[in-house]
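Could you join me in thinking about how sequence relates to backbone shape in a protein? Label the sequence line and the structure token line clearly, so we can match residues to local backbone shapes. Once you have written the record down, we can walk along the chain together.
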Amino acid sequence: MKIQPNMMQWTVEATRIREAADVAKMALGLVFASAFQVPILAQSSLYRICTHPDSLDKLREEACESQGLRFENNNREMPYLDSFIKESARLGPGPIRKCFHAKVLRIEVLLLSKAAESIVSVPRKVMSRYTSPEGVIVPAGNWIAVPQLPLMRDAGIWPNGGAFDGFRFVQRDDQSISRLTHPSLEFPFWGSIRHACPARFYVSTVVKMVLSHLLVAYEFKLENPTAKPVYSFGKARLPSPFMTLLVRKRVLPDEKRE
């Protein structure tokens, strides 16, 4: 009998795990990894829409024009919403780790310890002693990571990097400068360039569908505009579950005439 490929089968083959409980734990971890980014990114973007109402008309206009749009593989649709989501991701939440700084190459690499706290990504364990061209030695057994938060707010990389600019990634001809799904050294949101998250295209498409529907069909605002948008729980830094959105059905121009 031919075995049909599925996540459970792939888990067993890739990890050589045989115990049912261990396979179940691995499968649940994969489900979480594939699903958590959509609500996090959608909530971060909604928060930014509410706190930057000057962008609302352009986003709503683009969403109305794109109704019924088929998302193609060329990944060029809705440049303004794509840029707004990417900028929300650039300044959005991420994992927390304990770390101290060491200058390596053209960006800082963080050695995980209890000395300070920063937001990092792409953690890697050093399997053999490494010496950078600058002479910095990283012994085997240490963990290194990319300092995601300071990197994505660095004014030397991003003009006025600490400020939110929803249309930062759109050119004057309404074309994208770079897309949400484009990984880079300066934008490690999806991990490393070589091993970027393969689900990033799915996440980008679903978040756009969710936000487009809300923009077209509803009006919304924050119940408390001064509430903290981020909630830290253990080593996770997530959108606050206590953020309340006031929503009402949007009255369209055609409905007003009726």
Observations:
- The mean pLDDT is 81.
- The first strand starts at residue 96 and ends at 104.
